[in-house]
Amino acid sequence: MSARSLTAFLAVLAVIGLLGFGLLQKGDSGLDQGATVPDEPLPLLAGGGASSVRDYRGKWVLVNFWASWCDPCRAESPDLAAFHRANRARHFTVLGIDTQDLSGDGRDFVRAYGLEYPHLRDPDGDAAEAWGTTGVPETFLVDPRGRLRLARRGPVDEEYLAREVEPLLPGAPG
Amino acid sequence: MRALAAIALILAVAPAALAAEPQTTLPDVEDEVMCPICGTLLELSEAPQAERERAFIRARIARGDSKEEIKDALVAEYGPSVLALPENDGFGIAAYLVPVLGFAAAVGALAFGVRRWRRSPAPAGPDPAAPAGEDAARLDEDLARYDL
With an 8 Å Cβ cutoff, are B77 and A126 in contact? Predict the structure, then answer.
């Protein structure tokens, strides 16, 4: 093979490699069941510090990605608030992550729906991307070891929470 | 006298006019920032999230913030990706430097190629031997048939 042919071959190979890399980057980055969930610290929505899913190790955590401008998030919020109140004594919490939202709007949303659980901010959507979300709302159940147990694309409701989440929590009826 | 008064008035007003910062407007800002959810310029988006972002900008304008202050506030809310153009410092400067360097490299490569091409001797092609003998006669005969 001449030097010129080799150069052309390498150039074509590089282009194909770049295209492949691009496709892989765009591929489904959703978390698999049992995978350790991302735990980068995020700013608290209330301000004054940061927190992470890692801070809740030892508890079951229902991570809920939401935004104040999202209508389905409004629809599911009362059910999430009620589920949190009913189960917070069972080593369980809901953890809201307000993504790509104005912090003032996010705080107004929390007040309006009486959401008593903690909330983090994901200003640029990097956390949502790390979790493999495709939109809002999306909800993930994380076990006490920080591993993913359930993932829900789209809103949750009372029926879903009672059927899928509640039986996994400690102290669930046999 | 009237001309002198006019000049005096202009001189009195001009420094204040120059010192006054122009009021920022929504179109000034929304063509330089993104709607993060839509992935488009804010000015092109009609999404609900874009409307919230516009309301945020209007509130800042009403407070008297400058365009740069408003953009800084948007970066604090959404991160640096809210800016339509990368910042001209740190890693962001690469967005401006890489095209310039790429263009310079392309021009250099082109100049080098042209110079090399002009210097190279004309290719020595095969010397076409003129037909001789019977071939020459046949050629002349053929060509004569096309003479008008």
Answer: no
Contacts of A92 (CB under 8 A, 6+ apart): A59, A60, A61, A62, A84, A169, A170
Nearest CA in chain B to A69: B49
Those of residues 7-46 in B touching chain A at CB distance below 8 A are 36-37
Tell if the CB–CB gap between A103 and B52 is shorter than 8 Å.
Answer: no
Give chain A's length: 174
Q: What is the pLDDT of residues A70-116, one digit of tens each?
A: 999 999 999 999 999 999 999 999 999 999 999 999 999 999 999 99
B85, B109, B143 — which closes off a domain?
Answer: B85
| Percent of chain A topping pLDDT 90 | 80
- Among A123, A115, A138, smallest CA distance to A62 is for A138
- The Cα diameter of chain B in Å comes to 107
Range of the domain at A9: 1-30
Same domain, B80 and B94: no
pTM (2 decimals)?
A: 0.69
Q: Helix A103-112 crosses helix A71-87 at what angle (to 10 degrees)?
A: 50
- The Cα–Cα gap between B46 and B26 comes to 14
Question: Any idea which residue has 């909800």 for tokens?
Answer: A139
| Distance from C-alpha of A80 to C-alpha of A73, rounded to nearest angstrom | 10
